[in-house]
Amino acid sequence: MQIPYNVLMIITRIWHGVTHAHHADEYLKYLEASGLADYKKTPGNLGVQVLRSIEGEVCHFWTVTRWDSYESIKHFAGDDYEKARYYPDDARYLLEFEANVVHCDTFDF
């Protein structure tokens, strides 16, 4: 695919997790101290957003990160960069552990 010369292409990495709704605020603080901190200190990371949606008894989280290259993502996630990265205390909060994340080519015009 040929990208127009004036378009910056970046890669967006999206991770999804689910907690009990009553853990929503606590998990957000934990997420900030663990995964978000690691995202932000990884060279090539262009930004981090967290999306949160409480639906009844559960809360969905999505981390949406933007990267300058797949090589930079590998510095964060390892060579098998399509696998989700989890932290030791995630088991205290998460109701499931999705194996993979989603990567999207993202075009800013």
Describe, in plain words, how this protein is organized in 3D.
There is one protein chain. By secondary structure, the protein is of the alpha+beta class. The chain has 2 helices and 4 strands, in the order βαββαβ. It has a 4-stranded antiparallel β-sheet. The radius of gyration is 15 Å and the shape is globular.
Detail the topology: elements first, then pairings.
Blueprint: E1 8-20, H1 24-41, E2 45-55, E3 58-67, H2 70-77, E4 102-108
Antiparallel strand pairs: 1-3, 1-4, 2-3
The SSE order reads EHEEHE
The helix tally amounts to 2
Sheet of most strands: 4 strands, antiparallel
Mean pLDDT: 93
* First and last CA, distance: 16 Å
Q: What's the multimeric state? A: single chain
Helix content: 10-25%
Q: SS-based structural class?
A: alpha+beta
How many whole angstroms does the radius of gyration measure? 15 Å
Proportion in β-strands: 35-45%
Low-confidence stretches: none
Strand order of the largest sheet: 2-3-1-4
Secondary structure tally: strands:
4
How does the overall form come out from the CA principal axes? globular
Q: Could you give a quick summary of the protein structure above?
A:
By secondary structure, the protein is an alpha+beta fold.
Based on the model shown, name its key terms:
109 residues, alpha+beta, 4-stranded antiparallel beta sheet, 24% helix, globular
